[in-house]
UniProtKB/TrEMBL annotation, chain A:
PANTHER family referenced in this protein's UniProt entry, alphabetically: CLASS I PEPTIDE CHAIN RELEASE FACTOR (PTHR43116:SF3), PEPTIDE CHAIN RELEASE FACTOR 2 (PTHR43116)
Any single Gene Ontology cellular-component annotation: cytoplasm
Family the entry assigns: Belongs to the prokaryotic/mitochondrial release factor family.
GO molecular function: translation release factor activity, codon specific
Protein name: Peptide chain release factor 2
Family annotation (InterPro entries): PCRF, Pep_chain_release_fac_I, Pep_chain_release_fac_I_sf, PrfB
UniProt key word Nucleotide-binding: no
Pfam families: PCRF, RF-1
Record-annotated Peptide chain release factor domain positions: 185-295
Position of the signal peptide: none
Automatic annotation (TrEMBL), chain B:
Alphabetical keyword list: Methyltransferase, S-adenosyl-L-methionine, Transferase
InterPro entries: DNA_methylase_N6_adenine_CS, HemK-like, RF_glutamine_MTase_cyano, SAM-dependent_MTases_sf, Small_mtfrase_dom
All residue ranges annotated as the Methyltransferase small domain in the record: 171-260
Record carries keyword Amino-acid biosynthesis: no
UniProt name for this protein: Release factor glutamine methyltransferase
Signal peptide: none
BP GO terms, sorted: methylation
Amino acid sequence: MVSFLSKASSLLLRSCQNPKPNRNIRRLLSILSSPTPSSSVASSHARRWIPRQGAAFREISRWREFCSREFCSSAAEESQAKNLDGMTVDDIVAKEWTVLEEDASDWKSHAAAIALSIQLVKKRMQWKKMLIRLDQLSMAVSKSDIWDDPVYAGRICREHGLLMGKMKEVNGFEQELLDHIDMLKLAREENDSDIELDCISSLIQIRRKLKEKELEALLSGNNDSYSCYIEVQAGAGGTESMDWASMIMNMYKSWGERRGYIVTVVDEMPGEIAGIKRATIKVDGKYAFGYAKAEIGVHRLVRISPFDSAKRRHTSFSAVAVIPILGDLSSRYKINDSDLRIERFRSGGAGGQHANTTDSAVRIVHIPTGITATCQNERSQHQNKASAMSVLQCRLDQLEMARQAQMNSEHTRSLTDISWGNQIRSYVLHPYQMVKDMRTNFEVSDPYSVLEGDIDCFILNFLSTSLEKDED
Amino acid sequence: MGFLGEKDMFCCLPICSFRFTCSRSRGQIRFCSSSRPLSITTTSAPLFLRPLSHNTTSSHLQTFHAWAKSLAFSSNHPDPPHLIRELTWLLQDATSDPHTSFLQLGTTHPIWRVPLRVELKELYVLWKARVEERRPLQYIVGCEHWRDLILVVRDGVLIPRPETEMMVDFVKEIDGSESGLWADLGTGSGAIAVAIGKMLGEDGKVFAVDLSQTAVEVAEINVERYGLKDKVEVRHGSWFEPLEDVVGKLTGVVSNPPYIPSKHIPGLQVEVGKHEPQLALDGGEDGLHHLLHLCEGCLSVLKSGGFFGFETNGDEHSELIAGLMKTRWSGQFRDVKVIADFAGIKRFVTGFKM
């Protein structure tokens, strides 16, 4: 916005020095007075540029500040950004200007790319749902008795602020695009090639910024930015399916490490011969839940089992659940100590000085809900207890979230809720080699690289299709 | 502060200068007569504190891991999956990588250099001792993770048990426990004393008492490692004997004394019976020998209202001691409680002097 204003001002300045009256002055003033949120910065900047127009700009800036306040308070009603010719971002997309490479100098190509990006970002952010939610939140915030429950009020206000911030950012991009188009047209009429080039380079910058936003918008869910637990459970079928569960677990471990997350094993029940019956890992890092939630469901393997002496082809299944580790303490489930029963995971034997074991696994049972958590991978009982406690906390949080049903239920299902019929991805090692996602139909013909943790393509594909489908 | 800092701290200690005797720990002097020299002598530092002065490749470690795993599963150990977990801990201590990610690298980057704290061939020897001789992992790596502490342990000192962690929680719950004088009798590695020492305020102090010279040395190392020299004072001697200067002044006495009945000693789990100091375990014919001595003695060292907490052999012992406090010592203790551990065994007796 500031750079735009500086261009506008220099154009205006030149026009003012021109002895002939110029109709463009009026047009520019009207651009400057169009309501955009960042008006105060912009108008003060403009004032520096055109001393002679100072008084007029002070007027404009006052008017624009007024407008922007109005704009913010009524952001729930979608006020479509328009340029002077009444063109909107959707109109630009409708013109179907060809999108060329970034280094091309055709401004229309950049404008079209930006408009398309904005549309995609809005789709991924689930714009329509956001508008509805913002309406609900604005209504809740404006109620006079909201602060009677400060925890609730705090949560609502935070969500309201966050949502407003996200929407303002997109609106800002729209306005910037349209303003630059206006400016370009003016610059052409004035034959000012400096400003024209300036505008094009700004458009390129906006285009790049929006490309980043496209990716970010995939992870705009409430809990997406948090760390998470990933749980894998082997399906029926003995050693072959337990081996499959451990292959899946290794896939997530190395995926996490590749992404730079800190991966730790919390709980692991090894199979008798090979593999695991079930296991829980903690994936620590920003957006871990946002990405990993795309993996929830049943994963199917077809191969010739190395555990079958007759070398027959086997199909096995593993279920995957993902639980966010909420950062916001106020929204966490409150656990009463008296509701807990803590027990040694493998009791039996006299214990105490009779036994020397490094196995100090504990199980914590939350009696009212029957939910349990186990940890056996820490080296002291104290730490196993602490670790099991945080798993339990997250399971109870998840239960609470599902109960409140405020989120997409898809993302909050626990292992026990996942039905074995709900297959999301199939990994075929024999007779041909292919990994295919049943939800998106995305496929890769190198299953080994996928099993080594190269699953980002599946995740991004699923996230974008599911979000874009939801919005339609 | 990383490993280097810890190591430096450790190096200041006279760890190489002690004699190895098995004059086992707590218990009374009569036990000393049965002491014999230990066959295994090691004078080196715990694995995790040694410098990373060796190295190998990820594929060599992967080979070691596969060998160690198959050895574990072909052994007659009752819980091979847990041995595999111990194997991970051994590798964590032997390298500087808490996530043992070199095992995955073994296939993709076989010649990746992994720094080690021992020679690779030494790892084979250590693991063989773990599986075939059933030598406890804690002696092999020279440490035990206990509560949030990493305690140095070595042959001749009882490895602190997970059950005993709860003792510290009892102390924590007592009002005013952060000040006053405490005693941990038969401290062994110093576990309880160090944990209590960490909770104490300005004017609090713990006396960590043990009869065994080895235990005294190890406890001192642990006290030093946690920077608790002015909070925990290690004293050499039998039970209450080194505490004559504080008789009647103690806020609390805790102890995990030897409590296994003598006749059970030959049937103990191999890791315990063959490797741990028997005199830290043997509680006399009925296992109550030291416990009764402690009950009697704490009446004189505790101040009025002082706390006691004892670990016992479980169920009958705890009930018996609690019962005696109401009969033999009637009127001298109050609020006597029997508390179960996480396995549901009535493991502890706690209460207060009148």
